[in-house]
Amino acid sequence: MDNNRDETEISTLGQLRADIPLASDYIYLNSCTFGPVLRSVQRTVADSLREENDEIIAIRGKEPGARFYERAENARHRVAALLGVPPADVAWVNNTTTASRLAIMSLDWQAGERLAVTDAEHLSTHSAARGLSQSRGVEVTTIPTAQPGAWIYEGPGYFLEQLDQMLTPAHRLLVISHVSNIDGRRLPVAEAVGLARNRGVKTLVDAAQSLGMFDVNAQAIGAEFLSGSVHKWLMGPPGIGFLVISEEGRRRYNPYLLPLPPDGDGLPDGSRMPAGALNELGTANYSLRIGAGESVRTMQRIGLDTIEERCRSLTAQLRAGLRNVPGIRVASSDAWELSSSVTTVQLHEGTPERCLQLVERLLDDYRIVVKYRPEICGVRIGAAAFNTSEEIDQFLTAIDHLAPQV
Ligand SMILES: Cc1ncc(COP(=O)(O)O)c(C=O)c1O
User: Fold this and answer.
1) What is the pLDDT of residue 8?
2) Is-contact 182 340, C-beta < 8 A?
3) Which domains can be identified in the chain, with CATH numbers?
4) With a threshold of 0.90, does the pTM exceed it?
5) Does residue 380 have its Cβ closer than 6 Å to ligand 1?
6) Atom of ligand 1 at shortest distance to CA of 99?
7) Which of 4-13, 124-133, 268-277 has the lowest mean pLDDT?
8) Residues 6 or more apart from 75 whose CB is under 8 A from it?
């Protein structure tokens, strides 16, 4: 049971928007970086921290204390329900970067072994791959997700072909984003996991950009590992994320070198331990967990289908309008199934300076918040469920005006 239910619980997109003070001052199109933390979630975090410190820590072993920690544990159940997995598969960590690192570092990498990543990964994954190569002599294979020179993702065919050719049993892990943070391309994660599994290769799916935008079912995706956080599309607090580890994934997972029950071969076996027990060491921040649970609960009350539909229609409106803006091109695929709420545009003969200037002028002249994406020298726009059609129109007017000026 969640104790601190509000009388005015958010269950519509209008109420969601009204719970974001920032939205009345800015046109905020940067949820791909951080979503604004809902006021109600801020209150939940603050109230939980106060409750824990004013009362609970003095009576930890007693009934009210037990209820408080049970509420924190319920938040794990919420995340598990959102992802369609058992709560035992969910471990709290700080953010997606840490979750992915833990999964990567849980393998006892030896020199010459191979790690595969796609070319659409977040900088934090490329950094982990470079570090692994430097300190352990691991060879990194980068799988292209689109034809060389193609500036738009045209669908899963080419990528799956490349994966089929390049992924070998010598690879130990494939890291693949569900939605790329660069241009919002949506990758065929379930097919990639199946292909990897047939070669005995484990998979880590980075779901940082898909969670909270549309339904993500980790069980159906079937990867050993799935990483994510709540501070983007789920509009939860920063500093809390999770690693989902399947039972099979937990068999050899032990990044903290815990003493574990041995399996039939005498090797430490974590498969019967909950993922939390393998990851959550020391004192935790329970108020962040409760806040994360509250943000997930809010999204579930509104409904992921409703959220996806809003994101999809705003994105369609945005891309249709962008086609009429001279001097720019849309670098994201048009089809919703191949893309997401993340749209990146490039300036004709664009330079980093011009893109940065555009981002700055949008903020200074129009109070519109978007982000520069250095990977493809573009400007990234994220249409979230709390945004409105009027805001998209205002953005289109602004970019139409500014693009020729920068
Ligand atoms: C695809 C992807 N992976 C990982 C990250 C890093 O997320 P976090 O800040 O939660 O570590 C991001 C953040 O933008 C991302 O977009």
Assistant:
1) 75
2) no
3) 74-298 (3.40.640.10), 304-405 (3.90.1150.10)
4) yes
5) no
6) 11
7) 4-13
8) 289, 290, 292, 293, 294, 296
